[in-house]
Amino acid sequence: MKKLIIICFLTASHLISAPSSVSFYSVSISLSQDTLHRTIEIRGTQGSDRLLSRITRGFNPETQSITLEKAVFGFPEGDSGPIPSWATDTLSGSGGWHLALVTAFPALREGMEIDYRISLSDWSGNWERGIWAVLSPSVKGIRPDTCRFTVTGDMLEELSWHGAGYHIEESGDMLEFTATDSSDLLIISPFRTFRELDEFMMQEIAVILDSTYPPDLREAALQATSAGAYQYAQAERARSLLCNSIYPSSMVQGEEIYSVHSLQEILDLRRGTALEIALVFTAMCRELGMEADIIPAGSIDYGIPVPEGWNRFLVRLVSNEGDSWFMEPSAYLASASYIYRPDTLYIIENCSIRTMPPNTPEENGVLEYWSINPSEGTFSLEITCSGWYDMMLRRRFAGLSSAEAILSLSQWSWLSGRTIIPDSLASSDPFDLGTEMTLTAHGQLWMPVENKSFIEYLPLFDWMKPECIPAYAARMWKLSGIENVYPQNYQSVEIRDDAVILTDTSGVSNPFPVVFQFSE
Predict the structure, then answer these.
(1) Local structure of residue 127 (DSSP, 8 states)
(2) What is the pLDDT of residues 202-225, one digit of tens each?
(3) Residue 421, exposed/middle/buried by CB under 10 A (0-12, 13-18, 19+)?
(4) How far is CA 402 from the centre of its chain?
(5) Is 505 helix (H, G, I), strand (E, B) or coil?
(6) Is residue 199 left, alpha or beta, with left meaning phi > 0 and alpha meaning psi from -120 to 50?
(7) How many CB atoms lie within 10 A of CB 404?
(8) What is the pTM of this model?
(9) Which of 159, 174, 202, 279 is the most exposed place for a label (fewest CB within 10 A)?
(10) What are φ and ψ of residue 394, in 5° steps?
């Protein structure tokens, strides 16, 4: 019996699989004139998760070149050799990259080791002030046994760095950072102050804003004056005009990150990055007589000034009367005054880093008001919303015909676990960003029934709101011709002479039944 137990234990142990591991990870960076050279080396062991079977590195062929220097694999005690030529290919990129170098290790089994090294050259123009980088001490989420970052060149005294848990050695023209188990991101930057960083990011913008504006832009600014004399309303109108005429496009990875087209080119292309749309909006508002400045924004404070992560651009406006406010011109189909902030937003204002607090629940609000007649099986719906909900409602119905909007509402209800048959639908203009989004609808909720008592789910919509977004959601159901209602887990039930009103502010989207009994 003991032997049987031992055999079973050994068999079970043999079946236990280990995750992939990385024994060595190295990134070496150097700068030659305006070209950044980076060498990345990875040595590791394949595990049951197969994380090391395929390694992808995106690049932009217009500004970068990439070379695979080494790709060897095999068992530790056996033969190892390079991967076959067909296992390396250049494919269409993802995550904003034009292309990607994809290295596959064919038949890489658990326990095999890989040795991988690539070199990348970048002449995008992002390095004219010196080396900067944000480096993570992990590979595909794996903490290496040894992690080393090296910077070489004759400009080391101009660099600053930030990151906890690194052992640092400086020798001549080399600076070496060795990570420990407690290391976090390593930030390397040539910028000493946020003033220097702001000047670097806005240098092209400043030249364009100080130049003569094209006639097309002045004509667009004149259209904004139709909103009236109040400059806040004019700014809202300008936001709507841009939303209707210029489509936001993503920044291509590997390009000069703060390079922009001219105002006329942006207007002609009808497309623009977040920075380019902020540029057009700022120029329009200056034409309207307002003080307008572009404010870089990002979700992370890296501890020291570095160009990484400043991918949102607000515009700070000051009217002739001295009123001041912010807008985000590239926020597609969002209320003109709304700035999406599920968490703290960092901004560079007046050459200093500052914070904007997260949205309050009151800023992201929705009310679904349902009037229901169960005996007739009809409903009327009114939706009013703001902030995040406003943005979601605009994006769901913008550009749809009346018939398409009705179908979209019906499908949304069905996906929320309900069935409604809308007969009519009306909404505010999704492309008018100066007004909050509203929607009304009428139709059939369920077929009328002859029974005096029956069970039915109350209608509602699942907005699929992420948990990170602070919000206030309320639903009210006014039920006519109902004597008794037996709800589950409601915060409020109001019995009236002609109706029963149920209110739910939990925001929960799970279906729950209500038992109706008709009054005679």
Answers:
(1) T
(2) 999 999 999 999 998 888 888 888
(3) middle
(4) 31
(5) coil
(6) alpha
(7) 11
(8) 0.88
(9) 174
(10) -60, -45
| C-alpha gyration radius of the chain | 30
Tokens standing for residue 309: 């992560």
Rounded CA separation 209/266 (Å): 14
Handedness of CA 408, 413, 416, 418 (dihedral sign): negative
Could you report how far apart the first and last alpha carbons of the chain are, in Å?
Answer: 76
User: HSE of 328 in the Cβ direction (CA atoms, 13 Å)?
Assistant: 21
* Amino acid (1-letter code) at residue 468: C
CA distance linking residue 4 with residue 397, whole number of Å: 67
| CB atoms closer than 10 angstroms to residue 436 | 18
* Furthest CA-CA distance within the chain: 95
Q: Show the tokens assigned to 122.
A: 């970048």
C-beta separation of 43 from 105 below 8 A: no
Q: Which domains does the chain have, with CATH numbers?
A: 21-189 (2.60.40.3140), 194-358 (3.10.620.30), 362-518 (no CATH)
Structure token digits, residue 27: 């990134």
Angle at 78 between CA 77 and CA 82, to 5 degrees: 125
Residue 10 corresponds to which tokens in the numbers above? 């050994």
| Strand, helix or coil for residue 213 | coil
| Confidence bin at 471 (pLDDT 50/70/90) | very high
Residue 438 amino acid letter = T
Q: Are 295 and 347 in contact (CB under 8 A)?
A: yes
CA distances from 188 to 101, 130, 149, 159, 185 (A): 26, 10, 10, 7, 10
> What are the pLDDT digits (tens) for 376-404?
889 999 999 999 999 999 999 999 999 99
